[in-house]
Amino acid sequence: MTTNQLIVPNNNLSTRAAIELCDSAMTAAEQLHITICVAIVCPAGNVLASINMNCAPLLSAKLAHKKAYTAVSFKQNTYNWQEKLANKPQVLDALLSEPMFTYLGGGLPIFIEQQLVGAIGVSGGSEQQDISCALKAIATLLPN
């Protein structure tokens, strides 16, 4: 896919790119022998595409969306929050009171040519597996 096919005029991922991200994450999960849920959001946090693999943990669909939403909100990986908030319990408590915030790994922002175009959230495996599936999906979309 060319860059022109990846984004639409308002600097969002295209629907086709979002679907391909879901498919690539699912392929990565199959290679790990896990079942996951994936959510792709635009910069405004709205879901562009999502997929729930058969037998994925029930809570994973909501967590995948929260991971993507958190990643796009702060333009960083959700896992980074664990270290950032380790010695800031009041900030952690405040952020955890927000229904769409999570510090669980598996949410990554997606940048094309330094422009935030969306985010991916993966849930269902271990944190490391979720992160790995998200990274592999982004790498297949942007093979640079």
UniProtKB/TrEMBL annotation:
It comes from Marinomonas arenicola. InterPro entries: GlcG_carb_metab_protein, PduO/GlcC-like, PduO/GlcC-like_sf. This is Heme-binding protein. It comes from the Bacteria. Pfam families: HbpS-like.
